[in-house]
Amino acid sequence: MKLNQDCLTAIFEFCDINSLYSYLLVNRFWCKTAIPILWRDPWIITKTLNSKRAKIFFNTIFQLLPEESSDLLKSQGIDVPQRRKPLFDYIGFCKYLRKLDREVFYEYNDEQVKLLRQEIFKQFISNCSKLVLFDTTDVEHTVLEIPRAVTIFSDLYELHCKSTDNASLFFGLARICKFIEKFYIKHTIPNLGLAELIKNQLKIKYLKIYGSRIDDGEICSAILKHSHTLIVVSIPIEKDLPFLNDLILGLNNIQKLELTHGVYDSEVYKQLTFPSYPNLQVIDLNLSYSVASIAAYSIILKSHNLQIIVLRFNAYNYSENILSAISQCCPKLKCLKFYLDKGYLPIFRKVLINCQLLEGIFIDTNRKYLSQHGIELLKMLTTSAPLGLYKVHIGNFSYFKMECLKTFFENWKGRKPLLLSSLEVEVEDKKSDNIERLDDLINHYKNVGVIKEYGDDAVILNDNFERFY
């Protein structure tokens, strides 16, 4: 049975970029189906460090440039391949316009790179049917003067930018764009144009701010306008207490909240007021441990729909309170990333027993984690964890005896096969023959269906465990 193009497209949407490239060579029908998907966001190949593919990509773009652009580039010493008629309307498929990294054009000087960016962007803006994502890095405001710019930017959905980018460009986009829902901002200095752009949107849902400063009154005011529509927020904690409290109190529909390193001021954390978040499903805290623990405890205690909790700090004496809150208030929890000290194993058992939807645990420990506690932890996973648990990472600062691991795998039989990250064996088991024994052990339990996948440094778990949006 031959699949029609709609079915084949639906299948190809789930394929990785390497597979899609190989499909180009199957037949004309597969090639015709794969090309629009590959060219929807072609810039991704410049991020993969695949220099050969990047060169082919830019050679294709150069061949599509109008004659006047080719002549201009040649006059500035830039080699441009001979123009030819393309097999497809490649640029017409593009929906993403990302920044052109300087490293891609390493053989050219800064002025040549600036000219290349100008002509390439001009070609894309002139020939795209519609843009979904735009990265303003190193883009001049004159791009908005290109014919059709208003048309292709009018339905822009996602913006990546820096507060150091051209303010005139932001003011121009503010007049054109009203429906941007996702903002990814590296903020370091005030920018009135960026504030105006944020303020003019009708409904912002996703906001991620990088950097260490948000002491910008105009930006803060613009963000607060959208607090009730935001569903995903990632923001550095700063000293601007009134803004932070107003934002935190206004996040009525928040589903994912990520708080990151900012200026460490314990008094700020202590004064923050976290309300009940009925729709909150994910928290991700990467902060100073003592004050972040206060925030984590407050949020967990009041949020009963949490599915993913990522705590990137050692809570020390706060672990008991946080784990207790999780065991009592998080019946829907699916994934937990946490720093577990040996003294809190009993309360962790309550988490395993009470959180029956748990699928993944990502535990960090320290080198003081003694053998008997490691045995206790592994035994706890087989006796107390819900049957749906199968993603397991126990930090590489903990050591296990070979016999302890063998017992754990034997006891895991009959449960869902493990996605397991790398394990450390004890010093006396680190001789070469025992390292080989560990590999043999892993392979044996793969063959009998106890382990599905095993990888170093939680490679197996990273995509599955923490991806939410």
TrEMBL record:
Question: InterPro entries this protein is in?
Answer: LRR_dom_sf
Q: Which SUPFAM superfamilies match?
A: RNI-like
Q: Which domain of life is it from?
A: Eukaryota
Name of the protein in its database record = 10005_t:CDS:1
